[in-house]
Amino acid sequence: MILVVSYDEDHTLDVVRRLERAGREVIRVDLADFPARAVVNLDYADGERPDCGLTTRTGYASLGGCRAAWWRRVRPFTVDQRLRTARDQGFAASETGQSLHGLFHSLPCTWVNPPSLDALAHHKPYQWETARRAGLTLPRTLVTNQPERAREFIRDVGIGRTVFKAFLAHTEAWRETRLVRPEDLVQLDAVRYAPVIFQEFVPGADLRVTVVGERLFAAEIDASATSYPVDMRTVVDQAPVRPVTLPPPLTDALLRLMGGLGLVYGAVDLRRRPDGQYVFFEVNPAGQWLFVEHRTGLPISAAVAALLARLDDREPERTAAPPPLAGSAA
């Protein structure tokens, strides 16, 4: 059995269909269904292996036979609207998190990616330090909520050569990477409200490298001639996309990065400067790959399905329990 933790709007259906056509049993779970629209039952009795069951919109599933699990994309828990106070809603979400995360960590299966390591790897300062130790080049970067430090950094790097960005890009509050313009300087005092990432702008072509186990699928996305070359995410439909081959030292460094973070899957964003040097920006442990696959023909979905199938064929292993995740899924 293969467990997939994601939601309908995420692009996981192709992988699920591939697995089902190959005769695999796949259970998909959306954490946003819990606890208001779904049920968890963990039955411990007489020292036997517990009966771990989830009842969701798609029916009942016992997870005792799960050998592979895909921690793809998660949403916050949905509590019953009859709970009126923030305290009661928070308590219900916390208790749900304790039960479900405890269940997930207790399963004798291999995760892509382990949930606790996936959560940790989303933190960019941790990524950057792990990338530096892996031998990757980083852009000059400042994270600060002190306006004076931000002004000093911009003076050193230069207006029009400094970008600022958010740590997380949510669809509900999307913020693209932007160049600092002269008119932005009057708003720098707002930095005191939350830390901001400032970086030296790196010219060149973007690369999206999708890592699936030991396999790397690299695509060049050249946004330099588009309407917004600062952030390829906003103009990916305008930019040419083509598969590329990475130099072996870069491949080795990216695999060291993934190993240092404990990730099995990740979507890495790099930029290749005109002088040929590769600069690391970030790795998204749940990054999208279909736009690359559709534009290049790189068989990423097939690789993800094959990885999960191989893990499903392995004998269950018991490893040291990862640190628990507190609170609700985010």
Automatic annotation (TrEMBL):
Q: Name one GO biological process term.
A: SOS response
- Domain ATP-grasp: where? 128-309
Asked if the Swiss-Prot or TrEMBL record annotates the protein with the keyword Cell cycle, the reply is no
Task: Give the GO cellular component terms, alphabetically.
Answer: cytoplasm
Give the record's keywords alphabetically.
Answer: ATP-binding, Nucleotide-binding
Q: Give one GO term, molecular function aspect.
A: metal ion binding
- Listed InterPro entries: ATP-grasp (IPR011761), MvdD-like_ATPgrasp (IPR048936)
Q: Which SUPFAM superfamilies match?
A: Glutathione synthetase ATP-binding domain-like
Is ATP-binding found in the keyword set? yes
Its name, as the record gives it, is: ATP-grasp domain-containing protein
